[in-house]
Prior knowledge:
The complex is a heterodimer. Chain A is of the alpha+beta class.
Amino acid sequence: xxxxxxxxxxxxxxxxxxxxxxxxxxxxALIALNQRAGGMRGAPLAVPQLATIVRLARRLxxxxxxxxxxxxxxxxxxxxxxxxPDGENxxxxxxxxxxxxxxxxxxxxxxxxxxxxxxxxxxxxxTDAALRLTFVTLDAGPKxxxxxxxxxxxxxxxxxxxxxxxxGTLPILDSLARRRPMTAQPARLRSSGRAVTLTATVRHDxxxxxxxxxxxxxxxxDDVAPPAETATLSPTFTSGLDKALRIPxxxxxxxxxxxxxxxxxxVQGDYADYAADIASAGRHLLELVDDLVDLQAVERPDFxxxxxxxxxxxxxxxxxxxxxxxxxxxxxxIARPPVDMRVAALGDFRRVLQILVNLVGNAVRYSxxxxxxxxxxxxxxxxxxxxxxxxxxxxAPEDQARIFEKFERVDPSEAGGNGLGLYIARRLARAxxxxxxxxxxxxxxxxxxxxxxxxxxxx
Amino acid sequence: xxxxxxxxxxxxxxxxxxxxxxxxxxxxTRLAGTIADxxxxxxxxxxxxxxxxxxxxxxxxxxxxxxxxxxHAARLLAGSGxxxxxxxILKAGxxxxxxxxxxxxxxxxxxxxxxxxxxxxxxxxxxxxxxxxAEPDEASLLVRLAGVPDSVVASAASALLAAExxxxxxxxxxxxxxxxxxxxxxxxxxWWVAAAIRDGLTSATRESDRAITDAAQRSLAAHDEGERxxxxxxxxxxxxxxxxxxxxxxxxxSIGDRRLSLFVAVLAHALGIAFDQxxxxxxxxxxDRLWLALRALDMDRPTIARIGLAxxxxxPRRDIEQFADALDAIVSIGVEDARASIAPLALNRDxxxxxxxxxxxxxx
Lengths: 459, 364
């Protein structure tokens, strides 16, 4: 639960802490935070991080401000706390109020400065609060035709002429006004007139005020066509990827898991948590490697699967069984076809199982707690049909085609998944002369329908 | 850092007896190292970040000097027609100088390590200091100083901006342009590296010795002590020559601008002590000498509290709670008493070094 309205930016809550350590006055957000931490009117401040800062400010007799992370219900909240001694009391100013999400294996949100200090930049620069350059990567000067030493201490605009963005605004102004990262600010290098793109994060000072930019510049390369989208990945590439990545990744996951389980002896708590993050990211990458290898296979123009007689009801029961642990953890039940049911179909056993595991796995992931995922198998004249139905939030009609595209996800901010599963599943179904479709409306759950040719030799 | 014996060094030929003996010696050396490591005082142990950066800086400095000497010596030999000898200097034992010097124990030199550890700690703390903006939209201290009409101050401030940028790039990319060591340490290190290069040659000749010597001397001549950030900061502090009534503001602002070198230099200038002394007391996690020094300069409670708080935020070894407990006692120290207690800091540098060397020999 979020304790603030996300539409208001960085609300600031004030409070006054009396000599006995209790809040003698406070804005509602601060009172609520304190109460959720177990605090009461007249009792000492219950949020330990805040109490520490207040005590420190009182003892040192100066303003103390720091960023802290406090637990608030289930979430962690990032706060800027400023404590100013004022006679007997301490004035408390709390801003930021940003909820910290758990680590998520997803692509960064569009517009976020990706790989900030990565190799994608040509040089780096930093300014102070007055936008004067305090640091410039020195070896960029000779390469791009400016004198880095002479620019130190000069205004940012001595290095760059800033242009307006596509929407006619200057991203830097927005960034300055709202104290948030500056992305894609078009500019030209004063020395050469060449186009660059500027990206920067905002450095805050101890009071949370703007203290300068930490930025990068990337030369805009014109007249180079974007790399043509290749229809397929080359087999050597994926098999190389498979070999090169799977073993080291498996080792990383195994070691991170044993650090997390502290099987070799005690480890400091946060390190054990980092190890869990590493293991989870590693597992995510392993899945991606599997999917890429599949992707390479299904995208070959001559990709076909040899149909063999299979019992679709049996495959559906197995898929449900494989996911029962994950479902139990998520407090979701899976209704599977009856044990004595047989539905003869033609398909590749392993690939059909793969498709169904993917479908049931998605259904479990998107189901609310306590819900049921229903797997049913039926047979028509010419086809055998499996339906995986969930009671999740569903897929809007305009998104239904998109979810079968490569690297597409309905909600990219959602944890888990890499956007390849459904694409591969549909390619596999079609390679077996079958199909994979969806019936859904927002808020009413989703029904994924896998059809395969019926095995008319059997009934 | 780990520099164990290499297989080639350990086993010139396959002799089982010799091999067993070598293995026994190796196990003993290793055990001795492990025991020393176990009983090492936790306060004396480097934390991982500092250890990593120290290894990088040391490796980069030795590597830079090594290649400087090798390249120039090879050019000299090739120029006089001894192309093969020149190539031999480029190749023989290339990249093993650090290992050789470490194993010989030369790099355990206290003066050298003291300087390098202090430099690494200084840079790490400076990078973690919280920023404090004096006035909204006001340029930061060093940028303001670079624009003042007094050209001595302005040029020193520009030079410090440049020197600190250079140091940061070197730290981040693990490549140094020069050693940035004080002259006598640079001198010492250059001759050690030269000796290690010669030691790596299979057949050292008079010509190759001369070429290595010339190349080393060239490296010594090219070293400009005055370009080091410490020296530049010292020049700026002298040019500023902060008056007692300005001192508190300059100290607090330089630390708020994350210019730790300027803070140290201003402190050193005001106390009349050397930069390295002021740096040592600033980096000392207990901080007692720094509080005494600030009291000797008659700094008031809020100034000392601000400096202590900023350093505590940047240096995980410091204990802000202890500092808060002690603050009243610190402020109650009289200026004269404080001055008397830190007087030994102001001794002549060579005199101090000599006293220290003497104490060190007596310890052994």
